[in-house]
Specification:
Layout (H helix, E strand, L loop, with lengths): L5 H12 L11 E7 L9 E6 L2 E6 L5 E4 L5 E7 L4 E4 L3 E4 L4 E2 L2 E5 L6 E2 L7 E2 L6 E6 H7 L4 H5 L5 E5 L7 E5 L7 E5 L2 E2 L17 E8 L3 H4 L6 E7 L7 E11 L3 E12 L2 E12 L8 E13 L4 E15 L14 E17 L2 E18 L9 E2 L2 E2 L9 E20 L5 E17 L9 E15 L3 E12 L3 E15 L5 E12 L3 H5 L1 E2 L2 E2 L7 E14 L4 E22 L4 E21 L5 E16 L20 E10 L3 E10 L2 E2 L10 E2 L2 E13 L2 E8 L7 E3 L2 E2 L4 E11 L1
Parallel strand pairs: 1-8, 1-9, 15-18
Antiparallel strand pairs: 1-4, 2-3, 2-5, 5-7, 6-9, 10-11, 12-17, 13-14, 15-16, 17-18, 19-20, 19-48, 20-21, 21-22, 22-23, 23-24, 24-25, 25-28, 26-27, 28-29, 29-30, 30-31, 31-32, 32-33, 33-36, 34-35, 36-37, 37-38, 38-39, 39-40, 40-41, 41-44, 42-43, 44-45, 45-48, 46-47
Length: 735
């Protein structure tokens, strides 16, 4: 068990006991800036024009600002950030008494996004040098995706591969990194299994406010797992309006798709809530692929006085899915299945006063997974495209199943201080305890426990309204690999201001990832854990340019990136006479390429989006001596060289239509069945959707995924769903 150093304890004590200094003097103006969704925005450039000329400044923690010693007179406040407009006039009269002006930011035609994951506090994307994408509530709802993986596939720099239909195993790759190289957060709570793994196959776009995707190493803030990036899933909260909202939805469709959802949200007496429950069942077209799941989500907030906020979040998923195996190659396994229960609980107590804010956070994430195969389904010879394997594959029944039960407890403290007009400092400490019980029930289980302690610091500097520099580093102490320092720097330079702004972005960072429990603590003779493993590491660089045009109605961006992943852990055989095996840091790979983005709103009712990723990924050094697909010089498995998407949406007060075309190029893959297949052909998938307001709180929704009924496989051997049509009736009311 790690102990927080005395210096860290002293810092925390001083932070909780030191009041923020307020500027003295007459002619003082204070206020808070929020988005139309109710989010506060820190480090937002503002301009106050009045007697004595224009004055540039930044919002501090919680979107607060204060200016002192203003000459009495009339002032005009404006936002020096493209993608935002002020809701209201921004006019205020300042006299001898204190004046206050709270304002709401209304999104422009192509809106600016606010995200947390890039800096661990709300920040406008245009002031960050990091590469990031935000899928907001409007985009999530309008997409009408059947799964979170489907939603993420529209994002540049990200690819996904799912072994069949909804609920089946899915891997997500950011900029060519392994699926274990992304830190996954649910409302800021880390949910990766120890070692970075997380299966997104059963994740649904249920009660979400937004999804944030940060590309590039972020271990300077988050420590382990963030080698390639961070994905933060944010649960929906009540809107800024008072009252109670009720929502209900029933949906049915192809492959016996049945979904029921009910939710409520509201605000009253200083508190807010959002509660939702969902039930989904589908047969997923292939034999023994049926998926069923209960999902729940809650976000509860309370104001404990004017300056103190308390929030608790909860999400759970309880489901099961059949696992028939690679049915494209032969006989399905009709009795194998996978059961899974995920639970995430988080809490945050935050206090702010003037230029200072700090808070305590706690989170708990657990997963209980059980793979079952009770019956022997017999052997079969895999075949595909007229080619048969040279030998038969056998089933390996396991009536007791295989259990994978892990948990992660996280505790953290973070302080933010606007030191002056230029600096916004963040200091934090985070402790994580990981535990697990893994193996065959009834036999000896692998039951390890591991602690991680991280101390981090970050400075966000602004030079006027044109240049924004972020510097950060984290000292990470891990029970498996010891202590490491990981830095990061990012720059956003506005070459041209206004709604047609030009912004240059650049970032560089380092990432680390701990071994999984088997790699560090494995007890099997054939896969003995290695306690001396180094962390897997990364170095990432990117350089991008963003241009806004047509008075903010068009945004185009291009980003070059180069990621190097090294000290990758691989299994090896120590003695071929006995087949004794273990793990070592043997692998190295690189991924470089280009990301293109385009977003446009030529008229108020029409929106267009396009994304393209060129990925040049290669294995530089291999630790796998068994399969040539992993040999040095080979492309990265299941990561396409070319991927793109085109989206068009039209909406009015009573109706909406939308279409998304996903284009995925050829990629390296393996049948793992001795058929000799080493690549997977590209595919195109067209998704359509529509919405009609019926009146009295009722809406009719329809969606068709893979509308052209194309046959393809995201993973070799596992056919993707054919045309899937769904129709839903939604009801909503507000008191």
């Amino acid at each position: 068990m790690h102990r927080i150093p005395p210096a860290g304890a002293l810092l925390a004590l001083l932070a909780f006991s030191t009041p923020a200094a307020l500027a003295d003097g007459p002619g003082r103006l204070t206020g808070t800036i929020r988005t139309s969704d109710g989010l506060t925005v820190s480090h937002l450039p503002l301009v106050l024009d009045g007697p004595g000329g224009a004055r540039q400044f930044l919002t501090g923690p919680e979107g607060r600002y204060q200016l002192a010693s203003l000459t009495p007179g009339d002032y005009q406040l404006s936002v020096a950030t493209p993608g935002f407009e002020l809701q209201g006039q921004g006019h205020v009269a300042v006299g001898a008494e204190d004046a206050r002006l709270d304002l709401v930011l209304r999104p422009a035609a192509v809106r600016e996004q606010v995200l947390v994951a890039a800096t661990r506090s709300e920040a406008p994307l245009s002031t960050l040098g990091a590469s990031a994408s935000v899928l907001d509530a409007q985009r999530i709802d309008g997409r009408q995706a059947s799964s979170l993986v489907t939603l993420l596939q529209d994002t540049p720099g990200l690819s996904a591969a799912r072994a069949g239909g909804v609920g089946l195993q899915a891997s997500t790759f950011v900029r060519g990194g392994d699926s274990r190289f992304v830190r996954l957060l649910v409302d800021g709570v880390p949910v990766n299994q120890p070692g970075g793994s997380f299966d997104l196959g059963s994740a649904l776009p249920f009660e979400l406010a937004q999804v944030e995707i940060v590309r590039g190493a972020a271990s300077s803030l988050y420590g382990t797992d963030a080698l390639a990036g961070v994905i933060n899933v944010v649960t929906r909260r009540a809107g800024p309006e008072s009252g109670t909202e009720l929502r209900a939805e029933a949906e049915g469709g192809s492959f016996d798709w049945q979904r029921l959802q009910a939710a409520t949200s509201g605000r009253a007496q200083g508190g807010d809530w959002n509660l939702g429950l969902q039930r989904l069942t589908t047969d997923n077209e292939q034999p023994n692929s049926a998926f069923e799941q209960w999902s729940g989500a809650a976000s509860l907030g309370a104001a404990l006085g004017e300056r103190t906020q308390l929030r608790a979040v909860l999400r759970f998923e309880d489901g099961s899915v059949g696992t028939p195996g690679p049915t494209a190659f032969g006989r399905p396994d009709l009795d194998a299945s996978f059961e899974r229960q995920d639970f995430t609980l988080g809490g945050r107590l935050r206090q702010s006063r003037g230029a200072f804010a700090h808070g305590l956070s706690a989170g708990w994430a657990s997963t209980r997974q059980l793979s079952l195969n009770p019956l022997d389904s017999g052997s079969y010879v895999p075949s595909y495209g007229g080619v048969s394997a040279p030998f038969a594959l056998s089933d390996f029944p396991d009536p007791a199943g295989f259990q994978n039960q892990t948990a992660r407890l996280s505790l953290g403290y973070q302080a933010e201080w606007q030191a002056d007009a230029r600096h916004l400092l963040s200091l934090g400490a985070e402790l994580e305890r990981e535990s697990g019980e893994i193996g065959t029930p009834g036999q000896e289980l692998l039951s390890p426990r591991r602690d991680n302690l991280g101390l981090y610091a970050q400075d966000r500097l602004a030079f006027g309204t044109r240049a924004f520099l972020t510097l950060g580093a984290r000292l990470e102490s891990n029970d498996s690999y010891g202590t490491r320092l990981v830095p990061r720097a990012a720059l956003a330079l506005r070459l041209r201001e206004g709604q047609d702004a030009t912004t240059l972005r650049a970032s560089a960072g380092a990432g680390i990832k701990e071994p999984n429990f088997f790699e560090s603590y494995g007890i099997s003779f054939y896969a003995r854990g290695n306690p001396d493993l180094l962390p897997e590491r990364s170095r990432t660089f990117d350089l991008g340019l963003e241009q806004r045009l047509l008075e903010g109605r068009l945004r185009a961006g291009a980003t070059l990136f180069h990621h190097l992943y090294y000290d990758q852990i691989a299994y090896f055989v120590k003695d071929y006479a006995t087949f004794e095996g273990s793990y070592a840091n043997l692998g190295r790979s690189r991924a470089r390429g280009l990301e293109l983005e385009l977003e446009a709103a030529p008229v108020a009712q029409l929106e267009l989006r396009a994304a393209y990723t060129l990925l040049d990924g290669e294995i530089l050094e291999s630790g796998n001596a068994f399969d040539p697909i992993y040999a040095a010089g080979q492309p990265l498995l299941r990561r396409p060289r070319h991927q793109g998407s085109l989206t068009a949406g039209w909406r009015s007060a009573r109706a909406a239509l939308g279409a998304t075309l996903l284009l995925v190029g050829e990629r390296a893959d393996s049948d793992f069945s001795a058929l000799g297949l080493t690549s997977n052909v590209g595919y195109a998938r067209l998704d359509l959707r529509g919405r009609l307001v019926l009146g009295r709180g009722l809406e009719l929704l329809a969606a068709a995924e893979n509308a052209l009924d194309r046959e393809y496989m995201e993973v070799l051997g596992y056919p993707a769903l054919g045309r899937a049509v769904r129709v839903a009736l939604r009801y909503g009311s507000r008191d």
